[in-house]
Structure formats: structure tokens, C-alpha cells
Amino acid sequence: MSIWPRTDSDGPLPQRAAGPATPTEIRVSLHPLPSMPELARAWTELESRSDSSFFLSWTWIGPWLAQMPDGIEPQLLVARQGDESIGLAVLCPRLRRRFGLLPSRCWMLHETGDRSYDRLFMEYNGILADRRFADEVTDAMLHWLGGRLSANDELVLGGLTLAAERAARRVAARTGHTLQLRVADSAQWVDFATVRAAGGDFRGGLGRNTRAAVNRSERLYRARGALEHRVATTVDEALEYFAGLEVLHQAGWQARGQAGAFANAAFRPFHQRLIAEGIPRGAVRLSRVSVGGQAVGYLYNFVHRNRVLNYQGGFAFEADNRLKPGLLSHVLAIEDALARGEDCYDFMSTPAGHKPLLSNAEQPMNWLTLGPDRFSRRMEAHVRRARGVMADAVKRSLRGWIAPAKGI
Predict the structure, then answer these.
(1) Which of 59, 182, 279, 398 is the most exposed, fewest CB within 10 Å of its CB?
(2) What's the predicted TM-score (pTM) here?
(3) Contact, 94 vs 113, CB < 8 A?
């Protein structure tokens, strides 16, 4: 039976019931999206009972839904136990044609299928689930979806957490569907527990060449004037930094003959809204590194559950390659986060540039599709793998002089 465009209810979302709950008798249903105020209440209430990532927080999901392009009809997947909501996810239906000919119907988890809008980069994706039994809820919701995919349906799962990927693999094994790899990547971060266990000196723990490059760059900048790392404290100051980041980010990318993130029409308005809502909550952190009052680097980070996530940057590159504004900006931001008592500084996906040199931890982050084992899906997977081999070869040849998509 296809879930397209099936819904089970158009009534209001259930309110949380008092009393204990167990991971048995989980009921899953698909609904038209309720009003934004109603969904905000339900989402934030469940979020308070969840250990989910920043990208499943209402700080991200709210602006993402509010600025979604026309023509997309998001649906809400709900898991309940009794009258209590214990799992939520947004699914966007999308029609497409494989090889330009064969009709295919996709359900996309916290993505839209709109190529430009999805370049806002959803990562650490999964199900918003009650922390008491998050694995059981994730399994139940993905299994419910997998069991309702018809021959031409497909569930698109991008940027998954390890827990969500493990659940998807269990579902594939139980349903007989195939799980195909669209993009293989990894997330890298600085685990501050490791740094603190070694004495708390992040810079001192870097490789000799990296440490020398950081210190030399800092010394050269200080010879020009006062070096300052400042974190924006108000929405207005954060938006000012975001505008400055855009100038440097676009200049750097255009110098390489590429468009840059801000060429995407959805990028600026989405993040201006997210910044305006996230700064008062302490969920967004924009910082500027300046020398003699002149900006040489900006970083746009998220802060969630004591974890700093690096999302974007803009840096003033110069002909003198001893000056490394990106490297120095990240080191100063990492040292600031360490001093604040936070747990880690996460570069997220797309490891390149200085990220492997600064990180001390890593895990896979993959983009997958789940669906029936069809010849057309197998052929498409072969084509995708062939393209991936070519793309990886190009990346390897360019890595080291072209910055990654999110900037370093």
C-alpha cells in the first residue's frame, strides 16, 4: 500500500498525558501539517523530552517550514503511546523521474526535493523522539513508512545520525527493501573531554606543523595591530557579522570561479530569520576576528546541548599564504568554546582543508534511500556510484586548495 498521498487524520495534535510511559504499543500515523503555532507547541514540548540534534530543534525546523518554497506539501509523521506524542518528523512528498523517464515517488525526511532549498544543509537528521525510548520510536516510525512503500516509492534519508542510520538498516532487513547510499561523508569534531584530559591546552595538542602555522599567522597579524576575537551579543550585531561574512565568503568563492552559498536565493532570508530567533535563545553564535579593527574572519556557528556546530565562515584571504585567517579563526573559536566549558566544537560534514588537522574525533554521516528492490533503482545506484567515483577523483585532486562547501 502506498503512503502517497495518504493521511490518517486531519485533527489536532494530541497533548502530552501525565504518567509513565513504556516503549510498547507505539502507534504511528501521518497527518497534514497543522498550523505553525500548534506545531511549535507540540514540537518544542517533545523537544524538551528529547536528546535530538540542533537540526531537529524548533530553532531550525521553524524557519525551515516558514520559508519553504511554494508547491511543497509537508506532512507530519506522529508516533504516540496512548495520548502522548513520543515521536515527530516532517516528510515532504516529491515526484520525480528516474533517467528522465521512469516515474518515482519520494518521501523526504526533513528535506523538500527542491535542490536550492535543500542546500541549506540538513545534517544530524533523524526522528524527534522521546529520550526514554528514542531507538524504539525511530525504529517504529521508519518501519511504518517502509512497510507502506509501493513498488515505485522511495524514502529519502539525508545526513543521518548513526542511530537513525542503524534504524534504517534494521528496517531494510525486516522489510526486504534495499538501502542505497547516495552520498558517503563524515563529521569531524574536537572532543573537549580529550583535550581536557591532556591538560586543557588545545593548541599545544595540535600537530607540530599545524601549531606552527597557527602561531606564525597569529604573530604576523598581531604585528599589524590589536587582534580581537569577538562574539556578537545582540541580534543587530549578529546580523552585522552575517553581512560581513557574506562579503568575505562570496569574495573567496568567486575568486575560485564558483558561486558561493549566498548565490542561493533561499540562503540569506532563511538565516536572517534563524539568527533573529536563535540569538536570544543562545542557539546561534556569530564571531568576528579582527586585526586593528579590520575583519579578517567570521564564523557562523550553532550551539545546542553544549555542542558548538560550525556551519559557515567567511575569511579575508591574502597573497601571503603564511596568513591563515580560516585556521586562526577556528582555533580562536575552539579556545573560546573550551573556556566556556562546552563539550565539543563540531565541523560537521565535508571534511577538507584544516578540519582533519584540528579534529580529534570523527564518525560517518551518510545520505541514503530506502525502497523496494527494483531494477530501475539498482541501475540508478550504479550510475550514482560511477558519478561518485569521478567526483571523488576530482575532489582528491582539488583538496588542499579549494575550500569545502561550508568554508574553513
Answers:
(1) 398
(2) 0.87
(3) yes
